[in-house]
Amino acid sequence: MAPARSRLAELDALRGIAVLMVLAFHYTTRVAELYPAAAWGGFRFGQYGVHLFFVISGFVIIMTLDRSERPADFLVARFSRLYPAYWTAILATSAFLWLAQGPIEPPGLRQVAANFTMLQSFFKVPAVDGVYWTLEVELLFYALALAVFSAGLLRRPQLPILAWLVLSGLYYSPLWPAYVEEHRFAGLAARLLILEYAPFFTIGVVFYRLYQGAPAGYYGLAGAAFGLVLLHWPPGVSLMIAAACAVLWKLAHGGFAFLRFAPLVFLGTISYSLYLVHQKIGHAAIVALAQDGWSPAARLGAATLLSVALATAITFLIERPAMYGIRRRYKARALRAPYGMARHRPAAAR
Q1: What's the pLDDT tens digit per position in 300-349?
Q2: Which of 35, 116, 276, 279 is the most buried (most CB within 10 A)?
Q3: Secondary structure (3-state) at 194
Q4: Would you place residue 9 in the very low, low, confident or very high pLDDT band (cuts 50, 70, 90)?
């Protein structure tokens, strides 16, 4: 196994690729669907960039949990990473749509307030931006991972992973609509257990354990998860995930130097904020520029530059300072905890 690195540039590069895929999909194919007069080109495959994000999340979240002493450590780490940038993105998107005065209707105050929870879909409130649907999926994965962590099974997660994959295989199979779907809580269970996306998260989890030097038996779990992807998703998705698996495997063997390409790593660094702000702001800009007579390439380039600039500002002025500030305060409070308060779990439970 290669020596651990504090930050894996290859993961940022994968994030950069994923966010570029999603952005290209929204600025070409999705614009053509919603605003045909402003359409130019198409990249339907880009929608699967979110599945690449799910694989990366599986890897990173288990890494975060491994560094956590207790559930509160993980919750603070995730809150500080997600919410400040997310709240800023909601406000930025809402303000931009209000100022643009078309073609997209700006959200109301109630909608904005509900979106601040990141749980708006459970309240039947529309998202301020359509890309937010993946945040629910991520939060549910965090909850499942935290449950495994709290049960002391994170170091040896083979049984929970296998059970999850079996349920996911059932969800994908003809047996689900024939015998399971009709039951009252089947849909809710599938949603809460994110059975549709379980193989993608599983691949990330398993390859993190392999990165740490887990036994070869873990390759069987990775193979089972990849089999579900191969059987139930388009061939291009399987090829993309296979390439991601190669990158994750190589992390333990020196990594890929060509993926440490600075612009790609930078896009990965700002990928969360870029993902949050690019769609509706970009659509409004593309339509407005089309009405002003800009060429297709110019308006797509301008929308991309606008989104990247906004995401860069959010990342380095809001996301990073808020994340580090929240974590510093949390650690300071933990150090001031009364003597005798449990600060560490027994080694066997870590």
Answers
A1: 999 999 999 999 999 999 999 999 999 999 999 888 766 444 444 433 33
A2: 276
A3: coil
A4: very high
Radius of gyration of the chain (CA): 21
DSSP state of 124: T
346 in any annotated domain: no
pLDDT at 346: 36
Which structure tokens are listed for 223?
């193979």
The domain tally of the chain equals 1
Q: Is residue 344 part of a domain?
A: no
Both tokens of 67, joined, read: 């560094």
Taking CA 82 as the corner, what is the angle to CA 159 and CA 255, rounded to the nearest 5 degrees? 60
CA atoms of 304 and 302, how far apart (whole Å): 5
Among residues 259, 326, 275, 329, the alpha carbon closest in space to that of 57 is found at: 275
What integer best gives the mean pLDDT of the chain?
Answer: 93
Tokens 């209707």 found at: 105
Helix axes 198-211, 49-66, angle to 10 degrees: 50
Q: How far apart are CA 45 and CA 282, in angstroms?
A: 19
Q: Which amino acid is at 276?
A: L
How confident is residue 97, by pLDDT bands cut at 50, 70 and 90? very high
Distance in angstroms (rounded) separating the CA atoms of residues 78 and 64: 9
pLDDT digits (tens, 9 = 90+) for 182-215: 998 999 999 999 999 999 999 999 999 999 999 9
Of 33-47, 66-80, 326-340, least confident by mean pLDDT is: 326-340
In a domain, 148, yes or no: yes
Q: Which tokens hold the place of 157?
A: 């997660």
Give first-to-last CA distance, the chain, whole Å. 21
Residue 238, in any domain of the structure? yes
CB 170 within 8 A of CB 180: yes
> Which residues constitute the domain of residue 43?
9-335
SS3 289: helix
Tokens of residue 56, six digits? 């990366």
pTM over 0.90: yes
Question: Does residue 94 contact residue 85 with C-beta atoms inside 8 Å?
Answer: no
- Per the CB < 8 A criterion, the answer to whether 120 and 114 are in contact is yes
**From CA 243, how far away is CA 295, in angstroms rounded?**
35
